[in-house]
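Open question from group meeting: does this chain pack into something compact, or does most of it stay loose? Before anyone orders reagents, we agreed to write out a predicted structure and look at it together. Recording both the input and the output here so the notebook holds the full record.
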Amino acid sequence: MARFFTTLITSLGLTLIVSCSSMIKESDNRLSTNIVEKPTRQVLGVNADGVVIRTAPREESEKLINERATEAFGETQYCQVDHSTKVEVLETKDDWSKIKVVEPHWLSESHQGWIPSSYLVFEEHEEKKILGELDPREYEILKTDHKPVVENFHVLLKRPNFDKNDVHQFIKQFRKENCSKNCNVLVYDDKSVLPLVDIYPLTEKDYLKLADHFVSMSTFDAIEVRDWYPYQDFQYKEYGGKNWKKEPIK
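C-alpha cells returned:
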C-alpha cells in the first residue's frame, strides 16, 4: 500500500510538472505573438526649396497654414520644407508621403502633412556634388574667433555661382581641413560686411546689408542643418529687405 501511494504521488507530481511546462510554453507563445517589432524610423532629406506641405495627398488639396509665421508677418504663410530640413515619413499613398519635420526640431509640431514623394531623398544619395579638396583660390578666411571649447571661422566664398548644395559641401570639406574641435563656420559672399559681423545690435541699414551677404551658418551642434541666409528673417521683412534669396544664386 505504501508503494502504491508513493507511485500515485510521483505520477501526480510528474503530471503537474508536465502541465505547468505546457502552460509556460503556451504563455511564451502568446507573448511572442503579441510582440510587434517597431518599424525602422525613416528620416530623409529634401531635394528642393519651397516645397509646400498639403493637408491631403493631392495637388489640389489645401496648403497647410503656418500659424506662427502668419501671426508674425500679418499675412498668410504656409508650411514648407527645403534642403535645410530632415523629415520622418509617417505614411505613403500613391506618389505622396505624409511627413513630419524632425530637423529643425521646433517645426515638428506644426509641420506635418503631405508632399510629393519625389522631393524626398535618402541621406546616402543626398549629396549630389562632392567637392573634394578645397581650392584655396575659391575662399578666404576673413576672421577667426577661437574659444577654449569652440572655433569660429568667418569665411568668404569667392565663387561667382553657387547653390545650397555647393555651400553645404564646401562647409563639410572646410570642417575636415580646418576644424580641430567643435567648430562654427559662417560663410559670406562679400568681404565688405566683415566690420559688421561682431556688431550688436545692428542699425536697420547694416542689418539689411549683412543679411544680404551672410550666406550660411553651420554650428558645431547642428552641422547638417543647411542654414540659408540666416539673417533674412522676420526682422529683415520688417526692415523692408528687398533681396529675399530663396532660390540658388546664379
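Observations to bring back to the group:
The helical segments are 2-34, 67-73, 123-126, 164-178, 204-213, 234-238.
The chain has a mean pLDDT of 81.
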